[in-house]
Design goal:
It is built from 12 helices and 12 strands. By secondary structure, it is an alpha/beta fold. A 6-stranded parallel sheet has the order 2-1-3-4-5-11. Helix 2 crosses helix 3.
């Protein structure tokens, strides 16, 4: 049996009637080559099968110019705008992105790591708050790529983090409520496992302590960041007959649950209760009352995270492992001075 000779870039150039340099440009920078020339090169590539060989060389060089993004829920309102920032910065630098929607499933996370194993992705952006399952336990499972965490830091690791300053943002939010005259402020979103929740709770506590207010543990309720958690926590307060004058919620989705619960009980907001969120997701300005919240600079977060990851891929040492951006107080209609005695 006769083995077919592998095509070379010289073969493509000869068939297309152009130089080797032109073939290289047509493949790697097609917009810089005239349409007619690019078509001839494309036809020559198809005849020779040269693209397969080029891809093999790319894999041997362990470079794909692709970044894998692992997110537990691509439907998260915070995800899309951060993704725009990630893609924008990646595109400027000649990189593309792959999105892995893990749905908090360890098997899916491990499965997505095939892109790393097969050199189809050079680095990782983590929205998950933890190292992917399959990384670090056994070198035979997957090599460790450069990684950057976004939105939620990876605890007990050296993975660089880019996100909002959650502590400072929550402190500003609580101080806004205090400035409106509130002294009994509930916090919904206590968590023993989520770093973001913990930082926002610490910011809330710092604001109350700084104002000389007693922190009532009965006004701090668990919450996983969902609308149902906000509704359930509010109902729990009524059952226990321990009521605040204002609710500071770990995020806007939780705040929506609080508003739903209070509105179902026919309370007039914000006259009877003030409600404040965090994140400023798309619906925040459309609920009734429009939600006062802390706005995350999501586009900037994405750009900064991708810039940091590409610096790591280039072998650079980052100036700092944690980039914290400021959130912005957005004042709307859900907060006013307390009127309940």
């Amino acid at each position: 049996m006769q083995h077919q000779k592998l095509a070379t870039i010289e073969d493509v150039a000869a068939i297309a009637g152009v130089s080797i340099a032109t073939v290289s440009r047509a493949i790697n920078e097609p917009t810089k080559v005239a349409d007619a020339t690019r078509r001839r090169v494309t036809e020559a590539v198809a005849k020779t099968g040269y693209t397969t060989n080029a891809m093999a060389r790319s894999l041997r060089m362990r470079r794909s110019n692709m970044i894998l993004i692992l997110a537990p829920d691509v439907g998260d309102p915070n995800f899309s705008n951060i993704l725009v920032g990630l893609e924008t910065e990646a595109s400027k630098r000649g990189y593309g992105v792959l999105i892995g929607n893990t749905q908090n499933d360890p098997e899916r996370e491990t499965d997505y790591l095939r892109f790393i194993n097969s050199n189809q992705a050079d680095g990782l952006i983590l929205f998950t708050g933890h190292l992917p399952y399959g990384i670090g336990a056994d070198d035979s499972v997957v090599r460790l790529p450069p990684m950057v965490a976004v939105n939620e830091p990876v605890s007990n690791s050296d993975v660089p983090f880019v996100g909002v300053d959650n502590f400072e943002g929550a402190r500003i939010a609580a101080e806004h409520l205090i400035a409106q005259g509130h002294r009994r402020i509930a916090f919904i979103g206590h968590s023993t496992s989520k770093a973001v929740n913990n930082l926002r709770e610490q910011g809330y506590r710092a604001a109350l302590s700084g104002a000389g207010l007693t922190i009532d543990p009965r006004l701090i309720l668990d919450g996983d960041g969902t609308t149902e958690a906000g509704r359930a926590a509010t109902e729990h307060m009524f059952v226990r007959d321990v009521l605040p004058t204002a609710f500071l919620c770990v995020n806007d989705a939780t705040a929506l649950g609080v508003i739903i619960s209070l509105s179902a009980r026919k309370y007039d907001l914000p006259r009877d209760f003030s409600v404040m969120g965090f994140d400023d997701i798309s619906f925040a300005s459309f609920v009734t009352p429009a939600l006062t919240t802390m706005k995350q600079p999501r586009l900037k977060i994405g750009e900064e995270a991708m810039d940091l990851l590409l610096a790591l891929l280039a072998g650079e040492t980052p100036a700092k492992k944690e980039v914290l951006l400021r959130s912005e107080l957005i004042v709307r209609n859900s907060v006013s001075g307390p009127s309940r005695k």
